[in-house]
C-alpha cells in the first residue's frame, strides 16, 4: 500500500504541470461563453477587462502578502517598469483587443486562433535562444514545418469564412440576445491576430521577469493592479458615458467575478508557475483542448454559428501545432546549465569528502585496535 501511494505521489508530481494546464483550459472554455453572454447583455468589453483585473488583484493580494513575505524581492524602479510593460502586453492590451474581436467573430473562431500562440511563442523563443532548433535532424524540421502549417491555418481562418454549417438539432441554450451583433469577420480576425502576437510576447517576457522576481503570487497581483489601471485609462478615453461603468447583480457581475478570481487570478498564477517549471512554450501546448471543447459546446449546446473556414483552418492549426510539439517533446539532449554543473560538482565533492573521512576513520580504528591488543598481550606476559 505504501509503495502504491509513493508511486501515485511520484506520478502526480511528474504530471502536475500537465494536470494544471488541462484544468486551466477547461476554465477558459467556460470563459468564452459567459463573457459573450455578458457582452450581449450590454456590458462594455473594456469596462469588463478593468473590473476583472481589479477583482483578480484584490483576490490574490492577501495570499501574495502573507505567503511570499520572505521570498519577495525588493521592487526597484527598473523592475516596476518591467512589470508595467508585462502588464501592458498581456493584461490590458491583448485582452482588450481579444474581447473586442468577440463582437465581430465567434467563440469557436477565437478558441481556434488561440492555438497560434504556441507557434508564435516558439518563433520568438528560437530568436531569443530560449528554444533549441537543429535543422540537421527530423525533430528540428518538424518544428519549422509545424510552425508554417499553423500559420497557414491562421490565414485560412482569417481570409476564408465559408458557408455556415447547419445545426442538426435545436440548441439547448441561447446566448445571443435581441440586440443584433454586426459581424465584421476581417476586422475581428485582425484584432485577434494582433492579440495573439501580443500574448506570445507576454509569455516570453514572463520567463525573463520570473528570474528577477520569482514570487508568482506577488507578480500576479502586481500585473492585475497595473493592468487594471492601464485598462481604466484606455476605457475612459473611448467610453465617455458613466452609465457604461454601472454593473448590476446579473450576468455582468458573475462574468466579472469568474473572470477576475478564476481566470486573471488563479489561472495566471498557475501559468506563471508552469512557465517557471516547464518554459513558455509548454504553457501554450494545451490550447487545442479548449478549442475542441468550445467548438463542441458552441455548436451542439449553444447553437453558435459554425463556418466551414473555421473548421478547416482550425484543423490545419492543430495539425501544425502538434507537429511543433512532437519536435519539441523529442528534445532530449538539453545542455546542462552552469549552475546545475556547479551543483553536481559540489555534490560529488561532498560525497568524496565523506568517503575519505569514512575510510580514514576505519583505518584509525584498526590501528587503535592493534595497539590495544599489543598492549594487552604485553601486560598479560
From TrEMBL:
<feature type="transmembrane region" description="Helical">
    <location>
        <begin position="281"/>
        <end position="301"/>
    </location>
</feature>
<feature type="transmembrane region" description="Helical">
    <location>
        <begin position="79"/>
        <end position="97"/>
    </location>
</feature>
<feature type="domain" description="EamA">
    <location>
        <begin position="187"/>
        <end position="325"/>
    </location>
</feature>
<feature type="transmembrane region" description="Helical">
    <location>
        <begin position="307"/>
        <end position="327"/>
    </location>
</feature>
<protein>
    <recommendedName>
        <fullName>WAT1-related protein</fullName>
    </recommendedName>
</protein>
<comment type="similarity">
    <text>Belongs to the drug/metabolite transporter (DMT) superfamily. Plant drug/metabolite exporter (P-DME) (TC 2.A.7.4) family.</text>
</comment>
<feature type="transmembrane region" description="Helical">
    <location>
        <begin position="217"/>
        <end position="238"/>
    </location>
</feature>
<dbReference type="InterPro" id="IPR030184">
    <property type="entry name" value="WAT1-related"/>
</dbReference>
<dbReference type="InterPro" id="IPR000620">
    <property type="entry name" value="EamA_dom"/>
</dbReference>
<feature type="domain" description="EamA">
    <location>
        <begin position="19"/>
        <end position="147"/>
    </location>
</feature>
<feature type="transmembrane region" description="Helical">
    <location>
        <begin position="253"/>
        <end position="274"/>
    </location>
</feature>
<dbReference type="Pfam" id="PF00892">
    <property type="entry name" value="EamA"/>
</dbReference>
<feature type="transmembrane region" description="Helical">
    <location>
        <begin position="185"/>
        <end position="205"/>
    </location>
</feature>
<keyword id="KW-0472">Membrane</keyword>
<feature type="transmembrane region" description="Helical">
    <location>
        <begin position="47"/>
        <end position="67"/>
    </location>
</feature>
<feature type="transmembrane region" description="Helical">
    <location>
        <begin position="140"/>
        <end position="160"/>
    </location>
</feature>
<dbReference type="GO" id="GO:0016020">
    <property type="term" value="C:membrane"/>
</dbReference>
<feature type="transmembrane region" description="Helical">
    <location>
        <begin position="18"/>
        <end position="35"/>
    </location>
</feature>
<keyword id="KW-1133">Transmembrane helix</keyword>
<feature type="transmembrane region" description="Helical">
    <location>
        <begin position="109"/>
        <end position="128"/>
    </location>
</feature>
<dbReference type="InterPro" id="IPR037185">
    <property type="entry name" value="EmrE-like"/>
</dbReference>
<keyword id="KW-0812">Transmembrane</keyword>
Amino acid at each position: 500500500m505504501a509503495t502504491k501511494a509513493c508511486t501515485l505521489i511520484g506520478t502526480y508530481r511528474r504530471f502536475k504541470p500537465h494536470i494544471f494546464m488541462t484544468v486551466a483550459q477547461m476554465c477558459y472554455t467556460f470563459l468564452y461563453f459567459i463573457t459573450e453572454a455578458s457582452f450581449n447583455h450590454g456590458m462594455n468589453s473594456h469596462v469588463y477587462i478593468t473590473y476583472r483585473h481589479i477583482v483578480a488583484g484584490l483576490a490574490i493580494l492577501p495570499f501574495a502578502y502573507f505567503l511570499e513575505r520572505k521570498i519577495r524581492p525588493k521592487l526597484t524602479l527598473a523592475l516596476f517598469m518591467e512589470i508595467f510593460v508585462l502588464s501592458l502586453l498581456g493584461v490590458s492590451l491583448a485582452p482588450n483587443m481579444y474581447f473586442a474581436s468577440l463582437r465581430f467573430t465567434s467563440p469557436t473562431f477565437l478558441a481556434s486562433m488561440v492555438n497560434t500562440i504556441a507557434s508564435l511563442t516558439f518563433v520568438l523563443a528560437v530568436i531569443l535562444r530560449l528554444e533549441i532548433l537543429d535543422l540537421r535532424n527530423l525533430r528540428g524540421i518538424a518544428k519549422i514545418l509545424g510552425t508554417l502549417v499553423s500559420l497557414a491555418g491562421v490565414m485560412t481562418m482569417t481570409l476564408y469564412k465559408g458557408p455556415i454549417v447547419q445545426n442538426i438539432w435545436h440548441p439547448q441554450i441561447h446566448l445571443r440576445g435581441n440586440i443584433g451583433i454586426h459581424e465584421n469577420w476581417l476586422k475581428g480576425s485582425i484584432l485577434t491576430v494582433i492579440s495573439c502576437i501580443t500574448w506570445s510576447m507576454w509569455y516570453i517576457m514572463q520567463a525573463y521577469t520570473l528570474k528577477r522576481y520569482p514570487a508568482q503570487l506577488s507578480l500576479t497581483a502586481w500585473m492585475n493592479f497595473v493592468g487594471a489601471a492601464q485598462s481604466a485609462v484606455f476605457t475612459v478615453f473611448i467610453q465617455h458615458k458613466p452609465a457604461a461603468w454601472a454593473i448590476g447583480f446579473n450576468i455582468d457581475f458573475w462574468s466579472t467575478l469568474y473572470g477576475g478570481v478564476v481566470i486573471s487570478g488563479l489561472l495566471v498564477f498557475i501559468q506563471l508557475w508552469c512557465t517557471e517549471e516547464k518554459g513558455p512554450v509548454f504553457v501554450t501546448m494545451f490550447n487545442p483542448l479548449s478549442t475542441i471543447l468550445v467548438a463542441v459546446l458552441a455548436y451542439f449546446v449553444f447553437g453558435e454559428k459554425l463556418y466551414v473556414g473555421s473548421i478547416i483552418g482550425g484543423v490545419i492549426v492543430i495539425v501544425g501545432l502538434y507537429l511543433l510539439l512532437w519536435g519539441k517533446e523529442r528534445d532530449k539532449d538539453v545542455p546542462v546549465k552552469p549552475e546545475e554543473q556547479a551543483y553536481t560538482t559540489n555534490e560529488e565533492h561532498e560525497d568524496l569528502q565523506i568517503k575519505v573521512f569514512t575510510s580514514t576513520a576505519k583505518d584509525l580504528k584498526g590501528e587503535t585496535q592493534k595497539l590495544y591488543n599489543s598492549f594487552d598481550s604485553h601486560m598479560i606476559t
